[in-house]
Amino acid sequence: MIESYDVGGVELERPFKARRLNHVVWYYRDFNATLRFYQGLLGLKLMDCIDSKNGPPAMCPFLPTPFFFMTMGPDMHNLAFVPETVKQTFDGRHDDTTINHYAWDVGSYEELRGSLRYFREKQVEIQEVALRMPGSNYAVYYYDPESNMQHTQSSGEVIGWQGTSKPLAAWKVMKWVRGPNGELDEAIPSDEDLTSQALLTLEGARKDTGDHSLNPYRDLLVDIKKELEQNRFNVHGSFLPRPFKLTKLTYLAIQSEDPEALAAFYTRINGFKISAKTKDAIYLRYGADHHGLVIYSPESPDVINKKDKLVRTGIQLRTYQELKSALVYLRDNGVEILGKGRSFPGGEYFVDIMDPEKRQVRLFFYLEQVGWDGTTRSPDRWKPLESLPEKAEVSEDTYNFEHLSAYSF
Question: Is 36 exposed, middle or buried (0-12, 13-18, 19+ CB in 10 A)?
Answer without folding.
Answer: middle
